[in-house]
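Narrative of activities, Objective 1.

The group set out to show that a structural description can be obtained from nothing but a protein's sequence at a throughput compatible with the screening campaign. Below is one input-output pair from the validation batch, recorded exactly as produced.
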Amino acid sequence: MYQIIIENKLSSYENVHDKLSGNCHLKLHLSEKGQVNNIQIESGDGQICHRINDVIDEIGEFPMPLQPEVIEKLQMIRLTVRL
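Output recorded for this entry:
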């Protein structure tokens, strides 16, 4: 779900897919309310990872479920975003 949010935001930028291709592996650390606490780039194309980092900063807050046990599992997410 979070990967789709990021990819949709990326694709909303004009010609982003024409300019960039590759992938980025990252860890996303969220608060209990879904606010981005930390973005940790693990590997991937530097230009793509930089752009994804910017997009995540713009998103700022991701939707979180109501169940505390599910929230706890979603506070650290590993993602691979491919363009």
